[in-house]
Specification:
Blueprint (H helix, E strand, L loop, with lengths): L7 H10 L6 H9 L4 H10 L5 H12 L9 H12 L5 H12 L7 H8 L7 H11 L5 H10 L5 H13 L5 H9 L6 H13 L5 H11 L5 H9 L5 H11 L7 H24 L1
Helix pairs in contact: 1-2, 2-4, 3-4, 4-6, 5-6, 6-8, 8-10, 9-10, 10-12, 11-12, 12-14, 14-16, 15-16
């Protein structure tokens, strides 16, 4: 029998009793598409367990239980913020913060401040969850915390914090300075997220950084996004030169080649449109 045909109780039992996490998320995904009062109640009970594994299971299922608008969203958020007042285990806190991150589009100022206060927790797992919880939250304090997290020692935390800073609509001195701080980050994706964020803000100084990356030749597809954001046709010769240089190279990822071609085509189109409207 396929796992999709298992009862909720059997799936929950597997999650609780399995020693391996190999199929954990597959099982959780099946339960998430079965929103019911009974399952919600069982997950609620799990979040009150003395065992942190059980608390995490309940939190993770509820994080995306049912399609949007989720049927138990209000009760779930109330539960999460109640748990934030008492929970101390870093792994459970990370799970809670990730879960809030899936449902953070309508958080009030009080709840945002509660989340921001967790920046004082020095645990790396909590810091990781904090980035998720504040992602896309258009609030001054939330963005200030993300700015602080964008200089974290761990690259994956810096990367996501930089991404969220780059995506928010605020274009002020603090956000631009935070992005410029990451422009030479040793972690390539973080560096490219900073470049994209500055390009979205039409910061002309980032053009030289983009040119540097193109000449260097070692860049990911995020750079194409930044180039399109600038709409600057000065990059076309370098892009075409790079495409010509790798045309016969079978070791280059074909998806990367395709994205390079698409970038050239899109930038050419934008250039032609500007000439037409000029």
């Amino acid at each position: 029998m396929s796992k999709i045909d298992w009862t909720d109780d059997k799936l929950l039992s597997r999650l609780i009793n399995n020693k391996s996490d190999k199929s954990r998320w597959d099982t959780i995904s099946i339960l998430r598409i079965r929103p019911s009062e009974e399952l919600f109640t069982k997950c609620l009970e799990l979040t009150k367990s003395k065992k942190k594994k059980n608390r995490i299971i309940g939190i993770d299922i509820l994080a995306q239980l049912g399609l949007s608008p989720r049927p138990f969203l209000k009760q779930t958020l109330n539960l999460y913020f109640d748990l934030l007042n008492t929970e101390t285990d870093p792994k459970v806190l990370m799970s809670l913060l990730y879960a809030i991150g899936h449902n953070n589009n309508k958080l009030n100022k009080v709840r945002i401040e509660k989340i921001c206060s967790l920046f004082n927790n020095d645990n790396d797992l909590v810091k990781e969850g904090l980035v998720s919880a504040l992602g896309f939250v258009n609030n001054v304090n939330a963005i200030d915390v993300l700015i602080k997290l964008s200089s974290n020692k761990l690259s994956h935390i810096r990367n996501w914090a930089t991404f969220y800073i780059g995506q928010v609509e605020r274009n002020n001195k603090n956000t631009r300075e935070a992005l410029w701080q990451r422009i030479n980050d040793r972690h390539q994706e973080t560096k490219l997220e900073a470049i994209v964020g500055l390009a979205k803000r039409k910061d002309e100084d980032v053009n030289e950084i983009i040119k540097r990356e193109l000449i260097g030749g070692e860049y990911g597809t995020l750079l194409f996004e930044a180039i399109i954001e600038t709409g600057n046709n000065q990059f076309l010769p370098l892009l075409r030169q790079n495409l010509k240089a790798i045309k016969e190279d079978t070791t280059i990822n074909p998806d990367w080649k395709r994205d390079l071609k698409n970038c050239i085509n899109e930038l050419t189109k934008l250039t032609n449109e500007k000439r037409t409207t000029a």
